[in-house]
Design brief:
The complex is a heterodimer of chains A (305) and B (248). Chain A has 305 residues and is of the alpha/beta class. Helices cover 34% and strands 28% of the residues of chain A. Classes of the chains: A alpha/beta (305), B mainly alpha (248).
Chain lengths: 305, 248
């Protein structure tokens, strides 16, 4: 079996998979996945629902067995912590007890100071002695993170950690992940691409169980995205849209408000020579033209669409 | 906090210990009274018909107690055991434990041992209650026979919890585990219909408390005790092996 190609310029991998596959009753949830997670990175696994993200993470932490392929872990199992998308604990345990239990499960000495520090870091100090059965979804997510961090993991695996949180809760979770950067390798699955773009330096895109892309986020944004321009016009813009869509060098015209268009083009050269002329020919009243900021969502849609 | 304390807290905070103690103590206190006054109780419902029963003996007090507690009490034991041993539900909670613990026995052992000890403690409590009332109402019981009978019946209860553990390795939810485990425990005595097996079955131990009290030689229970010990070990091994391989 061919080893996966390391992500160029990155540290040696802490996790690598070789031709990883998983079937459920003949249906392939994962197929031939060669994942390489550089040590110290914040690696985002992105993909639509059903892409195989949770299955992949479950295999990496040992909760599922692959049907084919293998996993290389350059870290002891006890130093890997998983935070599922909806963490759950015995509802009659207090937050302090959950964190203390999490430490003991990985063989760390009981330490009230360490438990308190983890609870403070995750914003749960005030709820330390409350049973978690009464916690909100956001507090449970924090407790899941606290339980994971309490084990002082080398590899932290987060499955959709902010999927069901309100904006403030999401911000808090992303801040926590950012705080952990450097000391801990983080493997982060999400279908919220803005989150991934904000916190992940490395990215893998899964669709229908296959890894479509793997590499640095900045390389993906720079290299894989088709060039696009934001055009600001005086309304109405309908005629301009029709004219641009008819041009052979235009891939896509998207409306971004009443007076704004996002024009994805075949090449920057074509746009720079043709865009202004086409707008003038269409009788457009142009207020401004600028290269569009590339975001992960557009790249993702191009790769998976 | 560790997994042993977690199980202790599960008993306390889910009030499982109250359910166990209450059911065994209730039947422990009720059994000898109902044996002592069975004739009068039946006479109240018999109307004109005269009811005459043989005079109650100390053993019949124990029989009444065990007859009730090994049905309803055992169901409560199975429910408490299933609640602790169904540790792959819900999956997110199971992920917390399973992703951190390499050997599933580390999780299984405290759950099995704590539930078994709590069950035995409840059984001893109920039996001591039945014993006291039997002495007061019906007459003395031999101390040695009672202690040995409690030990052998406790062994059967440990076997019943092991059956629950094994069933929990095949099905995941307590609602499914309890009826299947109960069905298996009911089925065990039926194996006694096969002549040579009759004296070897764990269910023979259920009669040990009364049998020893009326003078059955202890050696009669040696074979089923050994079989029960061996089957309990096999069931726990089976549960651990299956749970170790089971995916979430």
């Amino acid at each position: 079996m061919t080893p996966p190609v390391p992500v160029a310029g990155d540290a040696p991998p802490i996790v690598a998979t070789y031709g990883l596959g998983k079937d459920y009753g003949g249906v392939a949830a994962l197929a031939d996945v060669d994942l390489v997670v550089p040590r110290g990175s914040v690696y985002g696994v992105v993909g639509p629902n059903g892409a195989g993200k949770t299955t992949l993470l479950s295999i990496l932490v040992g909760l599922k067995q692959p049907t084919s392929g293998s996993v290389m872990l350059a870290v002891e199992r006890e130093r890997i912590a998983l935070v599922p998308d909806t963490p759950s604990f015995e509802p009659w345990l207090t937050a302090r007890e959950v964190v203390a239990l999490a430490r003991s499960l990985v063989g760390l000495a009981p330490s009230a100071e360490a438990v308190d520090a983890t609870l403070r870091r995750t914003g749960l100090a005030d709820a330390a002695d409350r049973a978690n059965g009464g916690f909100s979804r956001g507090m449970l997510q924090r407790l899941g993170l606290a339980a994971a961090m309490a084990g002082e993991p080398t590899l932290l695996v987060l499955d959709e950690p902010a999927a069901a949180l309100d904006p403030a809760g999401r911000r808090d979770v992303l801040d926590l992940v950012s705080d952990l950067r450097g000391g801990t390798t983080i493997l982060f699955s999400s279908h919220i691409l803005v989150d991934v773009q904000q916190v992940c330096d490395t990215i893998g895109i899964l669709r229908e169980g296959r890894l479509l892309f793997q590499g640095r986020t900045r390389d993906l944004l720079a290299g894989k995205a088709a060039p696009a321009f934001t055009v600001r016009l005086r309304p109405p813009v309908d005629g301009v849209v029709d004219a641009l869509e008819a041009a052979p060098w235009v891939h896509l015209v998207e409306r971004a408000g009443l007076d704004r268009l996002r024009v994805t083009v075949a090449s920057t050269d074509a746009a720079e020579t043709e865009l202004v002329r086409s707008l003038a020919d269409a009788g457009a009243r142009v207020v401004g033209i600028a290269p569009a900021e590339v975001d992960l969502e557009h790249v993702f849609l191009e790769l998976t669409g | 906090m560790n997994l042993w304390r977690l199980e202790w807290l599960r008993l306390l905070r889910t009030r499982s210990w109250i359910a166990l103690a209450a059911v065994f103590l209730f039947f422990g206190l009720l059994g000898p009274i109902s044996a002592r006054y069975m004739e009068q109780i039946l006479q109240r419902f018999a109307g004109e018909v005269s009811v005459t029963l043989p005079p109650p003996t100390p053993a019949s007090g124990l029989e009444q107690y065990l007859g009730n507690v090994m049905q309803i009490g055992l169901l409560v034991v199975l429910a408490v055991a299933a609640g602790a041993l169904a540790f792959d539900q819900p999956i997110e909670r199971a992920a917390f434990y399973r992703s951190r613990v390499r050997r599933v026995w580390t999780l299984l052992a405290p759950r099995y041992v704590v539930v078994t000890l709590a069950t035995v403690a409840a059984f001893v409590l109920g039996t001591v209650g039945a014993w006291y009332e039997t002495v007061v109402l019906l007459g003395d019981l031999p101390v040695g026979a009672m202690l040995l009978g409690m030990l052998l019946t406790s062994l059967y209860l440990a076997f019943a919890v092991a059956v629950t553990a094994a069933v929990a390795s095949f099905v995941r939810t307590p609602l499914a585990i309890v009826p299947i485990a109960a069905g298996l425990l009911i089925a065990v005595p039926l194996l006694g219909l096969i002549g040579p097996l009759r004296d070897w079955l764990p269910s023979v131990l259920l009669g040990s408390l009364v049998g020893l009290a009326v003078g059955v030689p202890p050696i009669e229970y040696a074979r089923p005790a050994l079989v029960t010990l061996a089957v309990t070990a096999v069931l726990l091994g089976l549960a651990a092996a299956r749970l170790q391989r089971r995916e979430l």
